[in-house]
Write a structure and sequence with these properties.
Elements lengths: L2 H17 L6 H23 L2 E3 L12 H14 L1 H15 L4 E6 L12 E4 L4 E6 L13 H19 L5 H9 L21 H14 L1 E2 L2 E2 L1 H4 L8 H16 L4 H9 L7 E3 L2 E3 L16 H8 L8 E3 L4 E5 L5 E4 L5 E4 L1
Parallel strand pairs: 1-2, 2-4
Antiparallel strand pairs: 3-4, 5-6, 7-8, 9-10, 10-11, 11-12
Helix pairs in contact: 1-2, 2-3, 3-5, 4-5, 5-7, 7-9, 9-10
Bound molecules: zinc ion.
């Protein structure tokens, strides 16, 4: 999408660079911004074999920023470019359509669970990620590391179930889970409470957590082993996931390397002399997500005295608030006061 516009925008930037204009009119700033988004999207389309769609100018700027695409790119990197490419190629074979990653506005989705902010429709070869409308009061986004990898977990599931029927994925997974899907969450069985809802969601959550819970503070390693040192049901599911990757997508060695890290992760991260843990750290190592901080601070009731500083090491903003207090603010909407 926006192919013509993309070329046009790139030409404008090139001519601006060549003529070395010192000052920039408002429309030129918008064009430059839009062309940066378009260039990053084009690079990712090439890298992963996908099509990226996003809301158009509103009024002059496109509806996502480079930060949105950086979040997507870093998350796809956690899944591993080889596996993403293989899955997008399969989706194209299966449906006759290129896999579309569609960023979309849904202003009414203000306070609902993260998983409903993203979705995958196999028959349409379509993944949708809700992003906050610029100027809205919402900071909740479907463009988060866990949501993105979760949707690719669904795609991997469809790939196995449709292209490798002999695997009997449902039966095998069901056996490892050992109980039905009643919604009753068991720490040593499910990656998250959402995983206890259905087999498909369990598979997608296990896939996402095995890839994301690989950094300090983002840990489920203890839950993967029982007190005797053997695997828990969760540990067995992660092992089965690795078997599937090794068997059906042998080119995805980087994915396996990343999952292997999930077995040996410190349960907390130390930053600024304080300990942090939990899924709010999912942006650890990422660049700042786009278009989130202002409504987020409003939601938390924090008035920033200075421009918040993104801290990639911990994946949150260091906010000097008016009144001399200092906070670490996470994109998920949680915060901690710093000493
Ligand atoms: Zn899901």
């Amino acid at each position: 999408m926006y192919k013509l516009k993309k070329i046009f925008a790139l030409l404008i930037v090139l001519s601006a660079v060549l003529s070395g204009l010192p000052a920039m009119a408002a429309e030129d700033a918008a064009e430059l911004y839009n062309s940066r988004v378009a260039a990053k999207a084009a690079q990712m389309e090439q890298k992963y074999g996908v099509t990226i769609k996003y809301p158009g100018p509103n009024p002059n700027y496109v509806g996502i920023g480079p930060g949105t695409l950086n979040t997507m790119d870093s998350s796809l990197d956690k899944i591993g470019p080889a596996l993403v490419k293989r899955l997008s190629a399969w989706s194209r074979e299966y449906t006759g359509r290129r896999l579309v990653l569609d960023f979309t506005f849904r202003p009414s989705f203000d306070h609902i669970a993260e998983n409903a902010l993203a979705g995958y429709t196999p028959e349409l070869s379509l993944m949708e990620f809700v992003v906050p409308t610029p100027g809205s009061n919402s900071f909740i986004s479907g463009c988060t590391p866990i949501a993105i990898t979760h949707e690719f977990g669904h795609l991997f599931y469809e790939f196995i179930v449709n292209a490798h029927r002999g695997e009997n994925l449902r039966q095998n997974w069901s056996r490892l889970n050992g109980q039905g899907y009643s919604g009753r969450f068991v720490m040593s069985t499910h990656a998250s409470s959402y995983a206890a809802v259905t087999l498909e969601e369990d598979f997608a959550e296990t896939f996402a957590f095995a890839l994301i819970m690989t950094r300090p503070g983002l840990s489920m390693s203890a839950r993967m082993l029982n007190s005797q040192g053997g695997d828990t049901r969760l540990g067995l599911k992660v092992k089965y996931l690795e078997t599937l990757i090794r068997k059906y997508t042998p080119e995805a060695a980087d994915t396996l390397e990343n999952i292997a890290k999930s077995r040996n992760v410190k349960s907390s991260a130390v930053w600024n002399g304080m300990s942090f843990s939990g899924t709010s750290l999912e942006f650890m190592g990422y660049t700042a997500p786009h278009n989130v901080i202002k409504p987020l601070l409003r939601y938390l009731g924090i008035t920033a005295a200075k421009t918040p500083l993104w801290e990639p090491e911990i994946g949150g903003w260091d906010v000097a608030a008016s009144g001399g207090r200092r906070y670490l603010v996470f994109p998920s909407g949680s915060s901690a006061e710093l000493a």
